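Please predict the structure of the following assembly.
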Amino acid sequence: MKLKTTLMTAAFSMAATIAMGADFKPAVIYDMGGKFDKSFNEGVWAGVKKFTDETGVEVMEFEVTNEAQREQAMTRMVQRGATVVLGVGFAQADAIDKIAGENPDVQFSIIDVSWLDKPNLRQYAFKEQEGSYIVGVAAAMASETGKVGFVGGMDIPLIRAFGCGYVQGVKATKADAEVFENMTGTTPTAWNDPAKGAELTQGQIDRGADVIYQAAGGTGVGVIQAAKDAGKLSIGVDSNQNHMAPGSVLTSMLKRVDVAAYSTFKDAMDGNFTAGVQNLGLAEGGVGWALDENNAELITPEIKAAIEDATAKIVSGDVVVHDYRADNTCPM
Amino acid sequence: MNVTPPLPKWADLILLPLINLFAAFFVCGLIVLAIGENPFTALNVMIKGAFFYPESLGYTLYYTTNFIFTGLAVATAFHALMFNIGGEGQAYIGGLGAAVVALLFGPNLPMLIVLPLCILSSAAFGALWALIPGYLQAKRGSHIVITTIMFNFLASSLMVWLLAGPLMQQGQQSPQTVLFADAAQLPQMREVLGYFGFELANSPWNLSFFIALIALVVFYILIWKTRLGYEIRAVGKNQEAARYAGINVAKIIIIAMAISGAFAGLMATNEVLGVHNRVILNFTAGYGFTGIAVALMGRNHPIGIFLASLLFGALYQGGAELDFEFTSITREMVVLIQGMIILFSGALAYMFNPSLARLIARISAPKEATDG
């Protein structure tokens, strides 16, 4: 009798789960860079994939190709029964603000945005300046010439924030170090121009730089390649890019967009979805640095200690990394 | 003996584009088949997605509006044998023109004054951006293709600087201006037709569509019914002959380029005044370049440009639906399909021309001629 009840309960709860599963329909809208940009969007994809692997729930996907498609894609996802929609990147802010307002019963979440206000919208903002600061510390430690480089993608405030945090980390470690900064371009093609990335990197190497950090989406592939060809070091960004040139990528600045994507869907599925802004820095594990078998030999105990020291100081608040976006200036 | 007979006009304008289109679809069908999908299902999804679900037609016509403007821009210059590939930059700067007026006067003046000013300003800014390459070509001999494409980069650098700097909306991080005042927002077609009792689904289709239709008519009158149009075509046919006939070639080139830029600049009425109601980064999204294919396919004629714009609008909108419907058809596939159509109808536009001309000549040739 008791067994029967247990079985019945189990069956009921299973049926409930299945019913829940049928109602639960997640969707993600990647931005211009595309799902496989080896960087920002791909990080989101990794989180989506982890969610699907764990729960078996398929996530509807779309990659936008022009400005008007963002709003359209969100509307279409809602029409197709999506219960939670994740937008990737600040460019989708206006669209998600509008569509979230029109569909109060659907849950929305967006990455790299913090300035919206809707009761059904969760926003993830990352403190890229903190992550960039600690890789700046690593760059200054690893550099022999005292000259390091930064290659940005498109010249926008977000990327300047990467560069600014990096410079602060370098200067805090070696006050007399020189930092060369270049942006790839002013059009969105700057996110996907490995040749130009390689060219800029070579230029910086010619001026004496021996560690180059990049925040340039697909363009960064060219930076890593050029640094490897010249026997210098590069630093990856967003995803762990250490594997792209083992022994030549000093480390990668991790921006855990995969965690944002995974927790959005996981929370929505479990009924734990909350609106509001989640501001993720070093303390929250939202940004960090990558250490694996590909760069274990490059990270000396001294570098590791310096990074950990800087991390501890930022987490404790002893060191405050200036955010370029706060006032559109960099103190360095 | 092997001289190709000229193609009759009806065949050049209707039959040849249709054959090109069919060839493009055929090749695309093979590609879709190769990745394991049924090409007819895909075509069905694409057509349905472009025309037959509630908001689809609105989206198709919204894209069409952009292509009409940029297609007209390329065609105008082309009649003077100028290859204006700077439509992208001219449209971008046109957006700046609309924004300057909208931000300065939008909050204070009524819509009936602000909107026409915005529209004129976007055309004027676009014209100015094309005028400089036009001048350099006419007076200094700098090749128009080089200068216009360089001006695209200048435009985008200038706009990034403005949008991420002086014009950026405070309190957020997206490089864009603030939302325009209501007086500077072009009414949506949904609102206009709703006023007359038609229910329309939500789409970015707005009144600029009518501006585009008016532009088509203006273009026709300008090129074929005015003295200026005659001079533009004369310069395009033969500069030396035009000069001999007393036409100021340099002046005509500059004017033709300015008009061309004005048409491109008007694209901002759709994107900036009609859809986003603010200037956002890269709102031109490559429409300026697609305008080249539109003009080529439309044979630089207003009716052709309208039909080609409609086709490309349907491709853009239907292509997005393909991406939604099939997991195997990614956006890269959609770009490939669009590229095929541009390839066949633009770059290879005259591939079937000689054989088609011979075929038609053989069929329609008088009996005695073939006997002899």
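The longest helix of chain A spans residues 2-23. The two ends of chain A are 75 Å apart (CA to CA).
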